[in-house]
Amino acid sequence: MIDAPTFRSTLGRFATGVTVVTARDTSGRDHGMTVSAFCSVSLDPPRVLCCVERSADMYPVIAGASQFAVNILTTAQEAISRRFAEERDDRFDGLGYTRGVTGCVLLDDILAYLECSVASRFDGGDHMIVLGDVIAAGAADGRPLLYYRGGYAQMER
Fold first, then answer.
1. Do 35 and 50 touch, CB atoms closer than 8 A?
2. Which of 21, 54, 48 is nearest to 131 (CA)?
3. Which domains, and CATH codes, for the chain?
4. Who's near 106: CB < 8 A, 6+ residues apart?
5. Would you call 12 helix, strand, or coil by DSSP?
6. In the chain, what is the greatest distance between 2 CA atoms, to the nearest angstrom?
7. What is the pLDDT of residues 7-24, one digit of tens each?
8. pLDDT tens-digit map of 36-82
9. pTM (2 d.p.)
């Protein structure tokens, strides 16, 4: 078995898009966190997955939520990614957003969004894997914010 630093360093060579996953808790309070462990799973039905670390403050929210939204960030939104990666209570303060059909936050000026109903949850070691059936989506023009080798990157084309 390989050690954690080798595993992390190796996976760091895989560039990923950066998202902010949002959901509401049972009292209707908004929560969100930066997630790079996100991908499509199926076209029929339209399904995606995201992974949430068990130690994250978002973990109990997503563990109990029936719906969530994935906000795909643009190169201009690195500060938003950093904000939602930090442990803080005021993540949404001063940010523009609307609510989608699920009632989850859709941040302003994002590259794309997907709104999902939770289909399944699975144990993923120190993360929970959440499968979501996509019930609404939209996209805009722009360039994606990427994460590569422990830092933010941009596409060159």
1. yes
2. 48
3. 16-148 (2.30.110.10)
4. 22, 69, 71, 97, 98, 99, 100, 113, 115
5. coil
6. 45
7. 888 888 888 899 999 999
8. 999 999 999 999 999 999 999 999 999 999 999 999 999 999 999 99
9. 0.94
